[in-house]
Amino acid sequence: MTEKGHTVITPDLPGHGSDKTSPAEITMDNYIKTITDILDKQKDPVILVGHSFNGITFSRVAELRPKKVSKLVYLTAFLLPNGGSFFKAVQGVEGSKAVENFYLSEDQTYALVKEEEIQNAFAHDIPTEAFAAAKPYIVPEPAAPLSYELEITDANFGSVPKYYIECTEDRAIPIEVQRAMYKDQVAKSFSLASSHTPNFSQPQKLAEILLKIQKL
Questions:
Q1: What Cα–Cα distance (Å) separates residue 199 from each residue in 63, 118, 161, 179?
Q2: Is residue 3 within 8 Å of residue 211, measured between CB atoms?
Q3: How many CA atoms lie within 13 A of 136 on its CB side?
Q4: From CA 200, how far away is CA 203, in angstroms rounded?
Q5: CB-CB neighbours of 101 under 10 Å
Q6: How far apart are CA 74 and CA 178, in angstroms?
Q7: Distance of CA 173 to the CA centre of its chain
């Protein structure tokens, strides 16, 4: 993307990557502020690409900063209606290795997927060695954001063009669930025969799709 002249920003959300904030201290507001602070520093509107759970985060960000977001891209992500939440969205979902092996810590402050099923759930199409190298960056998910109920309006969120990149081999968010979420909600959809993490398994193909969306 950068070689095509684009600026790419990949921030670490609180409790993820290099940010070591305790999961017990993290709320959805912390995630949202991280992104809105970045948007507020940008001269021009940006394309937001939300992966997985962070479809919810970016939907709320678009609600709060509709003029700062030129397009919303959901990468095998949760595209939910007003009032939707992660916990509501996964209730009754079948065929998800992530949901089947999901559990909360004893103190209910963070969520995990059973160790022996993490690669199967999220990255079955990636070599074991490559996954092992990335594994230190897979951290427990703070629990509070998972129960956050999305607040969006037609006037703000509804004004931002939306696109969906589905992953047909996804074992975390089954393809049927992805398609049900984005049906009649997006300007255009794209498809990758990938696991839940095409940024690992098919980065070149993913970049090509993002470049197409940029030109639309």
A1: 26, 16, 22, 20
A2: no
A3: 4
A4: 6
A5: 16
A6: 10
A7: 11
| Count of domains observed in the chain | 1
What are the contacts of 131-134 at 24+ separation with CB within 8 A? 131/200, 134/200
pLDDT in tens, the chain (216 residues): 667 677 999 999 999 988 999 999 999 999 999 999 999 999 999 999 999 999 999 999 999 999 999 999 999 999 999 999 999 999 999 999 999 999 999 999 999 999 999 999 999 999 999 999 988 888 899 999 999 999 999 999 999 999 999 999 999 999 999 999 999 999 999 999 999 999 999 999 999 999 999 999
Which CATH number belongs to the domain containing residue 171 in this structure?
3.40.50.1820
Q: Is 206 exposed, middle or buried (0-12, 13-18, 19+ CB in 10 A)?
A: buried
**How far is Cα 179 from Cα 170, in angstroms, rounded to an integer?**
12
pTM of the model: 0.96
Structural domain range at position 188 = 2-215
- The residues facing 167 across adjacent strands are 192
Q: How far apart are CA 206 and CA 168, in angstroms?
A: 13
Beta-ladder partners of 191: 166
Query: Given the structure tokens 């979420």, which residue do they identify?
Result: 181
216, two tokens: 């639309």
Going across the sheet that includes 162-167, the strands are 46-51, 69-75, 162-167, 188-192
Helix (H/G/I), strand (E/B), else coil: 190: strand
**Count of CB atoms within 10 A of residue 72's CB?**
26
